[in-house]
Design goal:
With 357 residues, the protein is mainly alpha-helical. 59% of the residues lie in helices and 3% in strands. A hairpin with a 6-residue loop joins strand 2 (326-329) and strand 3.
Protein backbone atom coordinates (compact mmCIF):
# COMPACT_ATOMS: atom_id res chain seq x y z
CA UNK A 1 0.00 0.00 0.00
CA UNK A 2 1.18 3.54 -0.69
CA UNK A 3 2.35 5.84 2.09
CA UNK A 4 0.22 8.50 0.40
CA UNK A 5 -2.80 6.16 0.41
CA UNK A 6 -2.42 5.85 4.18
CA UNK A 7 -1.55 9.45 4.95
CA UNK A 8 -4.91 10.51 6.39
CA UNK A 9 -4.40 8.14 9.33
CA UNK A 10 -1.10 9.73 10.35
CA UNK A 11 -0.89 11.84 13.51
CA UNK A 12 1.75 14.60 13.40
CA UNK A 13 4.01 14.65 16.51
CA UNK A 14 4.29 17.93 18.42
CA UNK A 15 8.03 18.29 17.81
CA UNK A 16 7.50 18.16 14.06
CA UNK A 17 4.79 20.80 14.29
CA UNK A 18 7.35 22.92 16.17
CA UNK A 19 9.89 22.42 13.37
CA UNK A 20 7.33 23.72 10.90
CA UNK A 21 6.69 26.79 13.08
CA UNK A 22 10.44 27.48 12.88
CA UNK A 23 10.71 26.81 9.16
CA UNK A 24 7.74 28.65 7.70
CA UNK A 25 8.70 32.17 8.88
CA UNK A 26 11.88 31.68 6.83
CA UNK A 27 9.86 30.51 3.84
CA UNK A 28 7.64 33.58 4.26
CA UNK A 29 10.76 35.76 3.83
CA UNK A 30 12.01 33.94 0.71
CA UNK A 31 11.57 36.86 -1.68
CA UNK A 32 13.03 39.44 0.70
CA UNK A 33 16.13 37.31 1.36
CA UNK A 34 16.75 36.54 -2.31
CA UNK A 35 16.25 40.20 -3.23
CA UNK A 36 19.26 41.04 -1.05
CA UNK A 37 21.55 39.19 -3.46
CA UNK A 38 19.64 39.95 -6.68
CA UNK A 39 22.68 41.59 -8.31
CA UNK A 40 24.78 38.44 -7.89
CA UNK A 41 21.98 35.87 -7.81
CA UNK A 42 23.21 33.93 -10.85
CA UNK A 43 26.77 33.76 -9.50
CA UNK A 44 25.56 32.42 -6.17
CA UNK A 45 23.23 29.87 -7.79
CA UNK A 46 26.16 28.76 -9.94
CA UNK A 47 28.16 28.06 -6.78
CA UNK A 48 25.24 26.07 -5.36
CA UNK A 49 25.04 24.03 -8.56
CA UNK A 50 28.78 23.26 -8.34
CA UNK A 51 28.41 22.10 -4.73
CA UNK A 52 25.26 20.09 -5.41
CA UNK A 53 27.00 18.36 -8.32
CA UNK A 54 30.08 17.55 -6.23
CA UNK A 55 28.17 16.15 -3.25
CA UNK A 56 25.39 14.44 -5.22
CA UNK A 57 28.08 12.67 -7.25
CA UNK A 58 29.61 11.28 -4.05
CA UNK A 59 26.21 10.47 -2.54
CA UNK A 60 25.41 8.41 -5.64
CA UNK A 61 28.70 6.49 -5.36
CA UNK A 62 30.55 8.20 -8.23
CA UNK A 63 34.27 8.85 -7.74
CA UNK A 64 36.16 11.48 -9.71
CA UNK A 65 39.47 13.22 -8.99
CA UNK A 66 39.06 16.84 -7.90
CA UNK A 67 41.14 18.38 -10.75
CA UNK A 68 39.10 16.50 -13.32
CA UNK A 69 35.84 17.49 -11.62
CA UNK A 70 36.83 21.17 -11.82
CA UNK A 71 37.71 20.80 -15.50
CA UNK A 72 34.32 19.26 -16.27
CA UNK A 73 32.09 21.43 -14.09
CA UNK A 74 33.90 24.77 -13.91
CA UNK A 75 35.65 24.86 -17.28
CA UNK A 76 33.09 22.73 -19.16
CA UNK A 77 35.76 20.37 -20.54
CA UNK A 78 34.65 17.42 -22.66
CA UNK A 79 33.88 14.09 -20.98
CA UNK A 80 36.21 11.15 -21.65
CA UNK A 81 34.23 8.23 -20.20
CA UNK A 82 30.85 7.21 -18.75
CA UNK A 83 31.64 8.51 -15.27
CA UNK A 84 32.52 11.93 -16.61
CA UNK A 85 29.46 11.97 -18.87
CA UNK A 86 27.26 11.30 -15.84
CA UNK A 87 28.88 14.16 -13.89
CA UNK A 88 28.33 16.51 -16.84
CA UNK A 89 24.72 15.38 -17.15
CA UNK A 90 24.21 15.85 -13.40
CA UNK A 91 25.52 19.41 -13.54
CA UNK A 92 23.28 20.21 -16.51
CA UNK A 93 20.31 18.71 -14.69
CA UNK A 94 20.91 21.05 -11.74
CA UNK A 95 21.18 23.99 -14.16
CA UNK A 96 17.85 23.05 -15.66
CA UNK A 97 16.18 22.46 -12.28
CA UNK A 98 17.15 25.90 -10.94
CA UNK A 99 15.97 27.65 -14.08
CA UNK A 100 12.64 25.83 -14.37
CA UNK A 101 11.61 25.26 -10.75
CA UNK A 102 8.70 27.69 -10.91
CA UNK A 103 7.17 25.87 -13.89
CA UNK A 104 7.78 22.30 -12.69
CA UNK A 105 4.75 20.02 -12.54
CA UNK A 106 5.03 16.47 -11.24
CA UNK A 107 4.23 14.06 -14.08
CA UNK A 108 5.32 10.58 -15.06
CA UNK A 109 6.95 11.93 -18.22
CA UNK A 110 8.98 14.45 -16.20
CA UNK A 111 10.43 11.71 -13.99
CA UNK A 112 11.14 9.46 -16.95
CA UNK A 113 12.80 12.35 -18.80
CA UNK A 114 15.00 12.98 -15.74
CA UNK A 115 16.21 9.37 -15.84
CA UNK A 116 17.07 9.68 -19.54
CA UNK A 117 18.67 13.11 -19.06
CA UNK A 118 21.01 11.91 -16.29
CA UNK A 119 22.02 8.64 -17.92
CA UNK A 120 22.14 9.65 -21.57
CA UNK A 121 25.30 8.11 -23.10
CA UNK A 122 25.97 6.47 -19.73
CA UNK A 123 23.51 3.55 -19.73
CA UNK A 124 22.18 1.72 -22.81
CA UNK A 125 18.66 2.78 -23.76
CA UNK A 126 17.38 -0.74 -23.07
CA UNK A 127 18.11 -0.25 -19.35
CA UNK A 128 16.36 3.12 -19.11
CA UNK A 129 12.89 1.61 -19.07
CA UNK A 130 10.11 0.84 -16.65
CA UNK A 131 10.55 -2.33 -14.62
CA UNK A 132 8.16 -5.22 -15.00
CA UNK A 133 5.67 -6.10 -12.32
CA UNK A 134 6.67 -9.08 -10.20
CA UNK A 135 3.61 -11.17 -9.49
CA UNK A 136 3.45 -12.76 -6.05
CA UNK A 137 1.70 -15.97 -5.09
CA UNK A 138 0.85 -14.72 -1.61
CA UNK A 139 -2.69 -13.54 -1.18
CA UNK A 140 -1.76 -10.02 -0.16
CA UNK A 141 -2.89 -6.76 -1.57
CA UNK A 142 -0.23 -4.21 -2.33
CA UNK A 143 0.26 -1.30 -4.69
CA UNK A 144 0.85 -3.68 -7.61
CA UNK A 145 -2.47 -5.42 -7.30
CA UNK A 146 -4.67 -6.16 -10.27
CA UNK A 147 -5.57 -2.47 -10.38
CA UNK A 148 -2.01 -1.69 -11.52
CA UNK A 149 -0.89 -4.26 -14.10
CA UNK A 150 2.34 -2.36 -14.86
CA UNK A 151 4.76 -0.33 -12.78
CA UNK A 152 4.29 2.60 -15.12
CA UNK A 153 0.58 2.65 -14.27
CA UNK A 154 1.40 2.28 -10.56
CA UNK A 155 3.73 5.30 -10.82
CA UNK A 156 1.04 7.31 -12.59
CA UNK A 157 -1.41 6.44 -9.79
CA UNK A 158 1.15 7.48 -7.18
CA UNK A 159 1.59 10.83 -8.93
CA UNK A 160 -2.18 11.29 -9.18
CA UNK A 161 -2.47 10.66 -5.42
CA UNK A 162 0.22 13.25 -4.71
CA UNK A 163 -1.43 15.87 -6.92
CA UNK A 164 -4.88 15.16 -5.44
CA UNK A 165 -3.66 15.49 -1.85
CA UNK A 166 -1.70 18.63 -2.71
CA UNK A 167 -4.80 20.22 -4.26
CA UNK A 168 -6.80 19.54 -1.07
CA UNK A 169 -4.30 21.59 0.97
CA UNK A 170 -4.88 19.39 4.02
CA UNK A 171 -1.22 18.34 4.29
CA UNK A 172 2.10 20.15 4.27
CA UNK A 173 3.75 19.89 0.82
CA UNK A 174 7.04 18.87 2.46
CA UNK A 175 5.31 16.01 4.28
CA UNK A 176 3.64 14.90 1.04
CA UNK A 177 7.00 15.04 -0.74
CA UNK A 178 8.70 12.79 1.85
CA UNK A 179 5.85 10.28 1.59
CA UNK A 180 6.10 10.36 -2.20
CA UNK A 181 9.86 9.73 -1.97
CA UNK A 182 9.41 6.59 0.16
CA UNK A 183 6.63 5.31 -2.11
CA UNK A 184 8.78 5.91 -5.18
CA UNK A 185 11.94 4.15 -4.02
CA UNK A 186 9.94 1.14 -2.81
CA UNK A 187 7.86 0.98 -5.95
CA UNK A 188 11.11 0.89 -8.01
CA UNK A 189 9.37 1.87 -11.24
CA UNK A 190 12.51 1.73 -13.41
CA UNK A 191 15.00 -1.02 -14.13
CA UNK A 192 17.91 1.01 -12.70
CA UNK A 193 18.80 4.02 -10.53
CA UNK A 194 15.51 4.40 -8.66
CA UNK A 195 17.39 5.67 -5.58
CA UNK A 196 19.02 8.44 -7.60
CA UNK A 197 15.83 9.49 -9.37
CA UNK A 198 13.87 9.32 -6.11
CA UNK A 199 16.21 11.68 -4.25
CA UNK A 200 16.48 14.04 -7.22
CA UNK A 201 12.68 14.16 -7.45
CA UNK A 202 12.39 14.88 -3.72
CA UNK A 203 14.87 17.74 -4.22
CA UNK A 204 12.81 19.21 -7.07
CA UNK A 205 9.58 18.90 -5.07
CA UNK A 206 11.10 20.74 -2.10
CA UNK A 207 12.37 23.54 -4.34
CA UNK A 208 9.12 23.87 -6.23
CA UNK A 209 7.04 24.01 -3.04
CA UNK A 210 8.69 26.98 -1.42
CA UNK A 211 12.05 25.91 0.04
CA UNK A 212 13.92 28.56 -1.91
CA UNK A 213 16.94 28.43 0.38
CA UNK A 214 18.03 25.46 -1.75
CA UNK A 215 18.81 27.87 -4.59
CA UNK A 216 21.69 29.23 -2.49
CA UNK A 217 22.43 26.42 0.00
CA UNK A 218 23.48 22.95 -1.15
CA UNK A 219 20.85 20.33 -0.29
CA UNK A 220 23.12 17.49 -1.37
CA UNK A 221 25.98 18.74 0.80
CA UNK A 222 23.63 18.52 3.80
CA UNK A 223 22.55 15.02 2.76
CA UNK A 224 26.08 13.77 2.06
CA UNK A 225 27.50 14.99 5.36
CA UNK A 226 24.92 12.88 7.18
CA UNK A 227 24.61 10.10 4.63
CA UNK A 228 24.48 7.41 7.32
CA UNK A 229 21.45 9.04 8.95
CA UNK A 230 19.74 9.55 5.60
CA UNK A 231 20.17 5.88 4.69
CA UNK A 232 19.15 4.69 8.15
CA UNK A 233 15.98 6.79 8.27
CA UNK A 234 15.08 5.81 4.70
CA UNK A 235 15.39 2.13 5.60
CA UNK A 236 13.30 2.64 8.72
CA UNK A 237 10.63 4.47 6.72
CA UNK A 238 10.52 1.61 4.21
CA UNK A 239 9.97 -1.09 6.80
CA UNK A 240 6.57 -2.80 6.45
CA UNK A 241 5.85 -0.64 3.43
CA UNK A 242 4.08 -3.35 1.46
CA UNK A 243 1.70 -3.95 4.36
CA UNK A 244 0.82 -0.25 4.51
CA UNK A 245 2.51 0.18 7.89
CA UNK A 246 5.49 2.33 6.86
CA UNK A 247 6.36 5.18 9.24
CA UNK A 248 8.08 8.11 7.55
CA UNK A 249 8.07 10.41 10.59
CA UNK A 250 11.76 9.98 11.54
CA UNK A 251 12.85 10.70 7.97
CA UNK A 252 10.37 13.58 7.84
CA UNK A 253 11.93 15.05 11.00
CA UNK A 254 15.44 14.65 9.57
CA UNK A 255 14.51 16.42 6.32
CA UNK A 256 12.92 19.32 8.20
CA UNK A 257 16.05 19.71 10.33
CA UNK A 258 18.22 19.82 7.20
CA UNK A 259 15.94 22.40 5.59
CA UNK A 260 16.26 24.58 8.68
CA UNK A 261 20.04 24.24 8.35
CA UNK A 262 19.77 25.35 4.73
CA UNK A 263 18.06 28.56 5.85
CA UNK A 264 20.73 29.06 8.51
CA UNK A 265 23.37 28.72 5.77
CA UNK A 266 21.45 31.23 3.67
CA UNK A 267 21.30 33.59 6.67
CA UNK A 268 25.09 33.42 7.04
CA UNK A 269 25.61 33.87 3.29
CA UNK A 270 23.43 37.01 3.31
CA UNK A 271 25.34 38.32 6.32
CA UNK A 272 28.67 37.80 4.55
CA UNK A 273 27.33 39.23 1.30
CA UNK A 274 26.05 42.41 2.94
CA UNK A 275 29.32 42.84 4.80
CA UNK A 276 31.29 42.31 1.57
CA UNK A 277 29.43 45.19 -0.03
CA UNK A 278 30.16 47.57 2.85
CA UNK A 279 33.79 46.84 3.75
CA UNK A 280 37.24 46.56 2.24
CA UNK A 281 37.03 43.16 0.58
CA UNK A 282 40.69 42.30 1.09
CA UNK A 283 40.40 42.98 4.81
CA UNK A 284 37.30 40.80 5.01
CA UNK A 285 39.08 37.95 3.18
CA UNK A 286 41.90 38.24 5.73
CA UNK A 287 39.39 38.11 8.56
CA UNK A 288 37.93 34.92 7.07
CA UNK A 289 41.40 33.36 6.80
CA UNK A 290 41.93 34.09 10.50
CA UNK A 291 38.86 31.95 11.25
CA UNK A 292 39.88 29.03 9.01
CA UNK A 293 41.93 26.01 10.04
CA UNK A 294 45.72 26.36 10.17
CA UNK A 295 45.88 24.72 6.73
CA UNK A 296 43.34 26.00 4.22
CA UNK A 297 42.68 26.37 0.50
CA UNK A 298 41.37 29.06 -1.82
CA UNK A 299 38.19 27.01 -2.14
CA UNK A 300 37.58 27.49 1.60
CA UNK A 301 37.71 31.26 1.05
CA UNK A 302 35.48 31.08 -2.03
CA UNK A 303 32.88 29.16 -0.05
CA UNK A 304 32.60 32.08 2.37
CA UNK A 305 32.75 34.77 -0.33
CA UNK A 306 31.48 33.45 -3.67
CA UNK A 307 31.05 36.97 -5.10
CA UNK A 308 34.58 38.18 -4.30
CA UNK A 309 36.86 37.92 -7.33
CA UNK A 310 39.83 35.58 -7.57
CA UNK A 311 42.08 38.60 -8.07
CA UNK A 312 41.06 40.00 -4.67
CA UNK A 313 41.64 36.63 -2.98
CA UNK A 314 45.02 36.23 -4.71
CA UNK A 315 46.05 39.77 -3.78
CA UNK A 316 45.20 39.11 -0.14
CA UNK A 317 47.11 35.82 -0.11
CA UNK A 318 50.18 37.47 -1.67
CA UNK A 319 50.08 40.32 0.84
CA UNK A 320 49.81 37.94 3.81
CA UNK A 321 52.60 35.80 2.31
CA UNK A 322 54.88 38.85 1.93
CA UNK A 323 54.09 39.74 5.54
CA UNK A 324 55.30 36.20 6.42
CA UNK A 325 51.95 35.34 7.99
CA UNK A 326 51.16 32.46 5.62
CA UNK A 327 53.04 30.31 3.14
CA UNK A 328 51.92 28.07 0.24
CA UNK A 329 52.12 24.29 0.45
CA UNK A 330 52.74 23.30 -3.14
CA UNK A 331 51.90 25.00 -6.41
CA UNK A 332 48.91 25.28 -8.68
CA UNK A 333 45.23 26.12 -8.29
CA UNK A 334 44.59 23.40 -5.70
CA UNK A 335 47.59 24.27 -3.49
CA UNK A 336 47.00 24.56 0.23
CA UNK A 337 48.17 27.43 2.43
CA UNK A 338 49.48 27.24 6.00
CA UNK A 339 49.32 29.92 8.68
CA UNK A 340 52.60 30.94 10.31
CA UNK A 341 50.91 32.52 13.29
CA UNK A 342 48.84 31.16 16.12
CA UNK A 343 45.12 31.72 15.77
CA UNK A 344 42.18 30.39 17.65
CA UNK A 345 39.46 29.24 15.33
CA UNK A 346 36.32 31.12 16.23
CA UNK A 347 32.92 29.57 16.63
CA UNK A 348 30.81 29.37 13.52
CA UNK A 349 27.75 31.53 13.13
CA UNK A 350 25.61 28.56 14.18
CA UNK A 351 27.53 28.35 17.45
CA UNK A 352 27.58 32.11 18.05
CA UNK A 353 23.86 32.80 17.71
CA UNK A 354 20.52 31.13 17.83
CA UNK A 355 18.35 32.35 14.99
CA UNK A 356 15.02 33.61 16.21
CA UNK A 357 12.04 33.35 13.88
Amino acid sequence: MYCLKNIERVVMPNDIVKLYTQLYPFIGRNDAMLKTVSKDHDVLVGETIRLDTAFAMRLFGVELADPRFKSLVVKDAGAKNKTERFVKNLKRAFDKIHKETNTFELRETEIRDLLHFLYRDVEPDARLRHAKTERKREKTTDLLSSHHPTKREALETLIDDFRRLLAKSDFEPIFLSVNFYIDFINLKPFLVHNDVIGLMTLYVLLLSHGVKSLHLASFFELMYKQQDRLEKHTQEASRNWEEGLANVMTLHRFILQKLLESYQSLHELLRNYTFDQETNKSDYVENTINKLDDVFSKDDIRRAHPTISDSTINRTLRRMRDEKRIRPLGKGRSAKWMKLYKSQKKASLYEQITLKV
